[in-house]
Design a protein that fits this description.
Structural class: alpha+beta
CATH class of the largest domain: Alpha Beta
Strand content: 15-25%
Largest sheet: 6 strands, antiparallel
Helix content: 25-40%
Number of domains: 4
Length: 599
């Protein structure tokens, strides 16, 4: 009996020990870089600041990347002993994202956690955590190092490591987080673990009644009284500032739109009723109602319009029809005789006119038969690869227009489009500069979307050098928060400079410049094209989409007796296409935003 009790107690002790190891959590420490480099105790897991990087390397790291630098183990730990940064280390496991409570209702704060892999854990020197918004250019990065003499056992792979908080995360957005194990081997692909996650919406964090963009009517009641359809819904709370609404009903391919503006003098401040007009009887409609705000959430409800019987059995109606029926018959007889006489008189001229029309139609058909539809050349096995470069200095509306253009080109112009917004994970892992260099080298064509913000880089003077005290103050201010900052230097200006150098080199050596193109949207001017790109073909979009297609595929739009027919790029088909409508609307919104910013 006592043996069973002893075994049970040992098992319980072992479970408690395993549980304690699994619950072991490491949070970043404040340590000096000298402590890390000399391997003193108390430097097990240390955060690296921009001030540490400047003191160790003699220059400031790029602000958008926080304290992260390329090859951090070699730069900060391996100069005296390079061997400690040359061992194999596997990527971390179990990367998780958790939210931290903060009072700001417009953003969120997250903390990233992970576990180190037991492969090569004895040579582990630290971690680098990189966070980037998908579909945007905002980045943040944190660097953590162990001291040089630390060697972790395999059992330490159950320890949970955490990052510092990442504040300023936008609500209702997607992000990619990558945790990199240090040192980074030169020839290894599994040194980083990436994860895509979505942040909470405003309604999830603050409640529906506190979010203007996410609010929608919850309670809707439909009542038919004769031919009238009355709809009652609950109004938004007054503090949201929503003063107007709209309703849209769909049935049989038709759409009925209704503006709703509750009167301010109304006594009922919680509900409002409006009437749906122009609905057909005996038809089922699917309706939506929402606040009259940009990207407002819509509430869907169904409306079934019943038949309304209309009967008129009054004596006066029957007497009036009895008197009108003979008179109508007489009028019809007179009209029949008149029409027959007119037809007899005009038979001969009309026959001549019909013969002439037939001859004209015959000529038109013969001329159309001479036109032929040109096909794309069949020597290309894969679609051309197009890299699109742009600047985000003109705001999110311009970036959205670029994304809609890229989607339209890839879907309707038989072209494979490369866009950094669509390849965020690769941009995070390679770095924006390396990613653009690789795409420039491997792409068949390069299109630079020029705008006022892109052209400003050549006219904006470089910042003047500051004093040592001012630089250190800026670094300390940047280290206080790891929030997002725009990363336009790599994603636009540097790429355009590289392209400009390639164009100048190709022009000097007499090489073909057809690989490079420049374009502007309707709201930009020709002067927005940088000087180094004036040598290449440039287009105004969306009007020149057929010319761009001709450039990408190497075919002529016209030749004697033939024309290039491109579906959805011109004419009525382009106007009715949903993809072209989305592109034109994005360009319109970007132009409006540009004019507002210039006021």
């Amino acid at each position: 009996m006592w043996r069973a009790a002893l075994v049970l107690s040992q098992l319980l002790a072992l479970c408690v020990l395993v549980w304690a190891q699994e619950e072991d959590v490491m949070t970043p420490q404040d340590c000096s870089l000298d402590c890390i480099q000399q391997g003193r105790a108390g430097c097990e897991y240390c955060r690296i600041t921009r001030a540490d990087v400047r003191r160790a390397l003699g220059f400031k790291s790029i602000r958008g990347f926080g304290s992260c630098v390329p090859w951090p183990c070699f730069e900060l730990l391996g100069r005296e002993d390079p061997q400690i940064c040359q061992h194999y280390v596997h990527a971390p496991n179990d990367v998780e994202v958790e939210y931290v409570q903060e009072p700001n209702p417009t953003s969120d704060t997250i903390v990233v956690s992970w576990k180190p892999s037991h492969y090569g854990i004895a040579f582990l020197r630290g971690f680098q955590v990189f966070l980037q918004a998908l579909g945007g250019s905002s980045v943040a990065c944190q660097l953590f190092l162990f001291h040089r003499n630390l060697s972790l056992p395999v059992s330490h792979s159950q320890t949970v490591y955490k990052s510092d908080p990442f504040p300023g995360i936008s609500l209702g957005s997607q992000y990619a987080v990558s945790v990199m194990a240090l040192p980074v081997p030169e020839k290894w692909e599994k040194f980083t673990h990436s994860k895509i996650f979505s942040t909470r919406s405003c309604a999830e964090k603050n409640g529906l009644e506190q979010c203007k963009k996410d609010w929608y009517p919850k309670h809707i009641e439909v009542l038919q009284e004769g031919p009238a359809i009355n709809v009652t819904f609950n109004l938004a709370p007054p503090h949201l500032g929503i003063h107007s609404y709209f309703s849209v009903c769909y049935a049989k391919g038709l759409k009925t739109y209704t503006d709703i503006t509750p009167a301010n003098s109304s006594k009922n401040k919680t509900h409002h009723s409006y009437q749906l007009n122009d609905l057909q009887e005996g038809t089922n409609y699917t309706c939506e109602i929402a606040a009259n705000e940009m990207d407002a959430v819509r509430k869907t409800f169904d409306v079934q319009v019943m038949h309304v019987q209309k009967e008129d059995t009054s004596p006066s109606a029957s007497v009036s029809w009895a008197l009108l029926l003979p008179l109508c018959l007489a009028v019809l007889a007179i009209l029949g005789v008149t029409v027959a006489a007119l037809i007899t008189r005009t038979t001969t001229p009309q026959m001549k006119k019909d013969n002439m029309t037939a001859d004209i139609l015959k000529v038109d058909q013969e001329s159309e038969a001479q036109m032929e539809v040109m096909a794309l050349p069949g020597n290309r096995r894969t679609p051309p690869r197009l890299l699109i470069c742009y600047s985000s200095n003109d705001g999110p509306a311009h970036v959205k227009a670029v994304m809609q253009l890229a989607a339209f080109i890839q879907r309707h112009m038989a072209t494979q489009v490369c866009l950094d917004l669509w390849d965020s994970l690769s941009v995070c892992e390679e770095g924006p500069m390396a990613w653009h260099c690789r795409q420039i080298r491997h792409s068949d064509f390069i299109l630079v979307m020029c705008s006022a913000g892109l052209n400003q880089r050549s006219t904006t003077p470089p910042p003047l050098p500051q004093k040592e005290e001012e630089e250190e103050g800026e670094e300390e201010e940047a280290d206080e928060g790891q929030g997002f900052v725009p990363n336009n230097t790599f994603s636009s200006d540097a790429a355009v400079q590289l392209i400009g150098e390639e164009v100048g080199r190709a022009k000097t050596s007499g090489q073909d410049l057809s690989k490079y193109m420049a374009a502007i949207f309707d709201y930009s001017e020709e002067t927005d094209i940088p000087t180094e790109l004036r040598l290449v073909s440039h287009y105004r979009l969306p009007a020149d989409l057929p010319l761009l297609f001709s450039h990408l595929h190497g075919v002529a739009l016209h030749r004697p007796g033939a024309y290039l027919k491109i579906e959805l790029l011109s004419g009525e088909a382009f106007a009715k296409s949903p993809a072209s409508a989305a592109l034109q609307w994005a360009i319109y919104e970007a132009g409006m935003a540009m004019r507002e910013n210039n006021k």
